[in-house]
Amino acid sequence: MTTVLVTGATGTIGRHFAQHLLAMGASVRCLTRDRNRADLPSGVEIAEGDLRDPGSLGPACEGVDAAHLITFAGDDYAPIEDGEAIVSSLAQAGATRVTLLVGDSEESPLERAAKRSDLEWTALIPVEFMANMLDWAAGARLGRVEEGFADVPSTVVHESDVASVAAHVLLRGGEHEQALWITGPEALTVRERVRIIAEATGNPLTLIALSEAEVQRRWREYGYSEDDISYMTGVKTEPPLASTVPTDTVHRVTGRAPHTFSAWAEEHVREFMPASRD
Fold first, then answer.
1. pLDDT digits (tens, 9 = 90+) for 64-105
2. 257-275 residue pLDDT tens
3. Are residues 152 and 102 in the same domain?
4. 232 Cβ contact list (under 8 Å, min separation 6)
5. What is the CATH number of the domain that holds 275?
6. Nearest to 272 by CA among 164, 147, 168, 137
7. CA 112 from centroid of its chain's CA atoms
8. Beta-strand pair 144-148/206-210
9. φ, ψ dihedrals at 31, nearest 5°
């Protein structure tokens, strides 16, 4: 049985990832900084540790065959710096394959270390998680969504589909030295996504379209650096091809079609419903 270490286990795709791995017959070990706060499926092994402290990873890495690595951590999503030590710990433990969840245009230290190593590596690049739309939930319960770049399309992808691609790559291989753009089945604007959520809930929603300057001001208030703001603005104003044209990655790697945004909205109806209708 293949043993897989899942880092970022309490993040956007972690629980989905563990479920896919378990369903495919793997032994799953999830890394978390605090086991008491980890809401993970039954059947997984929980190991405490922190990727930002490679010295804490020894027990987590012991006996693993493969690992899923996030390349950033913390509330500020800062790149994980000591990539060499992490890769070395995995290699010494006997791991042979890793997936790397990539969230920035610049190659991270962990990516560089994996690419220089003897590990089989695959970079996973989700265009935009459907789960990001949960940021709209509080406003949607009041009948409105405030968002910028309202008419810019994005091939938003279900977090479970990203997890499924990662699980298939780690257990079946075949994507060594590849960077996989992962998308949903269609490119949807903010305006279209708001309409789909309104249809799923039966709750009329008003879109308040923010200007580029208003969006950037909010990002500054959230604590993003000017470099981050420049990058995120560029993604919206000059989106990569995969943001506007869906890829076949999910179907090609997993053998099934990716989830639609309508399906995701139906799954999350309760989060968007007004309090009086809960």
1. 999 999 888 766 667 888 899 999 999 999 999 999 999 766
2. 999 999 999 999 999 998 7
3. no
4. 219, 224
5. 3.40.50.720
6. 137
7. 20
8. parallel
9. -90, 130
